[in-house]
Structure prediction request, 668 residues.
Amino acid sequence: MVEITYRDAVIRGIAQEMQRDEDVVFLGEDVAKAGGVFKATVGLYEQFGPLRVRDTPISEQAILGAAMGAAMTGLKPIAEIMFSDFFAVCFDYIANEFPKSRYMSNGQLKCPLVVRTGNGAGSRFGAQHSQSVENWCMMIPGLKVVAPSNPRDVIGLLAAAVRDPDPVIFLEHKSLYATKGEVPDGEIVDTLGSAKIVRPGRDATILALALMVPRAVEAADKLKAEHGIDCEVIDVRSLVPLDTRTILGSVSKTHRLFTVEENPRLCGWGAEIVSIVADEAFYDLDGPPVRITTPHIPLPAADILEDAVLPTPARIVDRVKTTLNG
Amino acid sequence: MALQSDRANGGSGLNDDIGEAKRLELYRTQVTIREAEQRAYDLFLQNLVKGTSHLSLGQEAVAAGFAGAMQKGDLSFCTYRGHAHTLARGVSVEKVLGELMQRDNGLMRGKGGSMHLTSADHGVMGSYAIIGAHLPIACGAAWRAQYKGQKDVSVCFFGDGTTNIGAFHEALNFAAVWKLPVVFVCENNLYMEYTPIGDVTAVHNPAGDRAGSYGLEKIVIDGNDADAVYRTARAAYDKARAGRGPSLVECLTYRHSGHSRADPAKYRPEGELERWKERDPIKIYRERLLQFGIGEKVIEAIDAEVRNVVDTATETCKAAPMPPMDILTTDVYADGGWAWRN
Prediction:
């Protein structure tokens, strides 16, 4: 067991998979010699060499297209898109090419690749470098979508994503890169599509993803200590495949559901889960599900403004408390 | 249309570097495309080819020449105007027409349709209906060959309109910087859909005049002469296999039909089609065969055989069942199914 940062976990996860399989290659902007703008790929170029760790031009379509062509013909590429906001300039691959080639070709083509990207707010970068775009990806049939909240999950889920035969969008949270967590020694391989109960509780279920997980846990600790409300916090981890079994099981126990989402409100991932719970567990609920989200606005840059729009532990505490206690 | 080329004219000189067997193959491929595409058009008018279809009538020499120079294992990446390139790699007329007619015997059992013809066994790694998308994808396939030390070439076909989209420029630069074994083939049929390409492009040769921006040689050839296409293709593949990087080839050609479906192509000036029909690639190639001493009887026999293949395929497809409902949800994910939750 060793304590490492989320950033170092990315490096260790990629290295673990590149060491295991020579078909794993890695490309992106500034990822090789410079070690990545978030320093999340430092040392990989030195360790695996210029044929396997490659700097690209600022050409997001070329990056994702090349990853796809390589994946179709036998490699297992990891492609980095520096900021998830840039998905918008290469969305053709994410929406039209990766996820549809297998279906359209009646199973003749494959697309086993991973797109890693820096997602989420907290860096005061403004509306085009801070978005949480997990809902852009979740809605597309044929993709898998993963967003780890801690170093151990970064390694395990990245390994699972690289080994998965489908295209996987791997959302790293920029504001988590410096956070630390314990990871076991040796190889770590997780499974896609399993949520994790990170804090058991009886009174309410709180679902969270990535940066919202530590905030939900902090809120749950406060709710218990200060208000006697015992919340179960679930780290959703994987939006596709979605572990509805764990979520529905928790709701059937607590009878209350809250989602904590960093994405803007409309069509956020929580909306889909609330709809599933309404369909399949309506009579388990003691009250309406509550979504705690960023409002439906572009993200502002100023720290005081950005802090005001993202769900915080205080806001989560307040919503849960007023909802349950009236 | 004046032919502009920085390269020695690889056209119709009376040399025999191509040889009779290859010439007969090039002819048969062109006639197969012509007959199959004409049949697709007729079936579209009968509402038996559904959705859309983009024909390569008049552009057969490009497909035949580039496919004819390929080796087994070389990969083709096509656009929605991809029937010709699929047929040129040896995919059966029945499989192609079946997919156009959205039958269960089609290449992808009706799940892809006319714009997405794919036959991985033949090296046809997909037909892409989003303009420009497949140029970077072809780069990736070429990267795999380079990385693994494999000698196959990735060949990417697209129209003149593609040269104005960002992915074209990203892919050209990327391929040049990484020295990838990829060949980009622009079929300049003078129209991006309905608009003359010259009206919307800053340079005269939409591909050729951009080549220099990526450190590549300007290559503009007569796309209606299968011999010229074949020789150019061979040179570009040799270069790629030798590790000397990508090529960009602009083939001047013309589509006899409209852009898609039953487009009557009224946007073309009077007499233009007729002028190009005088340079019909199949007419040119029949004359070429005669020049090389191949008898009319041999040519007519090929014509008859091809017609028979297309007729038989048409009847087989008409009799083929529609796709069954149980394939609706297969192959969304690699486990064969579509489950996104437990």
Observations:
- Chain A has a mean pLDDT of 98.
- The first strand of chain A starts at residue 2 and ends at 5.
- The CA atoms of residues 144 and 168 of chain A lie 5 Å apart.
